[in-house]
Amino acid sequence: MILPNSVTCHADVNASRRRSSDGVSAIDPSAFREFEHQGWQDIASRYHGGFASVTIQSVPALLDAARVGKGTRVLDVACGPGYAAAAAAARGATAIGVDFSSEMVEEARGRYPEIEFQEGDAERLAFSNSSFDAIVLIFGMLHLARPEQALIEACRVLSPGGRLAFTVWDTPDKAVGFGIVLSAIQKHGDLNVGIPPGPPFFRFSDPAESKRVLAAAGFVNFAVVRVPQIWHLHSPETLFDVMYNGSVRNAALLRAQKPDALEAIRAEIRQMVAQRHHELAMPAVLASAEK
Ligand SMILES: C[S@@+](CC[C@H](N)C(=O)[O-])C[C@H]1O[C@@H](n2cnc3c(N)ncnc32)[C@H](O)[C@@H]1O
Fold this sequence. Notes:
7-stranded mixed β-sheet
């Protein structure tokens, strides 16, 4: 599958960097951040009914990788509705959640009123050095304009010996919900529509890339594992509906298609999901490291 810059696999990371340095499709971090921010503000109330049923499946493995237990001071970065913060608190940890979307923060506060949630940017954390024993990012890294900067910030606010853990989606051949959607667009529509270019969506699906970026941010003792997850969809229509109404980059990609192409894409996605009895493998890649 040939992916555009906006959703490209790690195999294309260097190409994307070359394009950037050539200035052909350089990433404008401010424009991409604004695009993501507006997107999350718009879909915050729909997130729980869409991707959440699958993103929460890797939370126990993620908290184990970050060594979260009783008394651990945990920061859940890009917390969305706050699932990881809540799961950490259930283990006896002291958890705080941070998200740059005020709407997401409201969702989290409504869902878990006993936990502290703050509006804030992963790339500029409003905490002093060495404030936390563990930092977790569930499916947040792939939405950041400058993920390297977020890792540097995470390292700064972690205490020495503290652990960071993040999950991202596996590549679209394995996380087949994405594979189905991207293949359908490639077949019937156009993957290279004009949405603000961002860092490659599947960049951190590659363990070597995660380790490289973690090391550059100052982390040591890396571990990267794959975590099986299954998406039990309500019906063959659900995958299209969630991508169209409950995602940011993939929704923008779908919304930019011509009407005829979009109908063909919708039908193709429906058929591919029906063939799989609306149960899709959506594994996560879980990376962790120590300060
Ligand atoms: C896919 S959701 C993940 C939500 C939650 N962690 C989960 O696992 O379900 C991505 C979240 O990242 C947040 N986000 C994106 N960029 C961010 C940034 N620069 N700083 C803080 N949060 C950010 C979005 O608002 C959104 O809530």
